Amino acid sequence: MEVPKDLTSYVRVLKLASTPSREEFMQVSFIAGAGIVLVGLIGFIIFVIMAFMPGGV
């Protein structure tokens, strides 16, 4: 592992990175939020199904 080589690659990546525009940020936030809600909904549906099964929760 060559430390100077690693540092230069990190600096190069940081130079290429840019702050997202408000539109990009809102789109990513919406998609991430929708994913969180979807996973929660699936978990809730599984919980409801298990609660009504004999010997469930």
TrEMBL record:
One of its GO terms (biological process) is protein secretion. InterPro entries: Prot_translocase_SecE_dom_sf, Translocase_Sec61-g, Translocase_SecE/Sec61-g. Its main location: membrane. It is found in: Cell membrane; Endomembrane system. One of its GO terms (cellular component) is plasma membrane. GO terms for molecular function: protein transmembrane transporter activity. The chain crosses the membrane at residues 30-53. Keywords: Cell membrane, Membrane, Protein transport, Translocation, Transmembrane, Transmembrane helix, Transport. SUPFAM superfamilies: Preprotein translocase SecE subunit. It comes from the Archaea. It is a single-pass membrane protein. Belongs to the SecE/SEC61-gamma family. Component of the Sec protein translocase complex. Heterotrimer consisting of SecY (alpha), SecG (beta) and SecE (gamma) subunits. The heterotrimers can form oligomers, although 1 heterotrimer is thought to be able to translocate proteins. Interacts with the ribosome. May interact with SecDF, and other proteins may be involved. Essential subunit of the Sec protein translocation channel SecYEG. Clamps together the 2 halves of SecY. May contact the channel plug during translocation. HAMAP family: SecE. This is Protein translocase subunit SecE. It comes from Halomarina halobia.
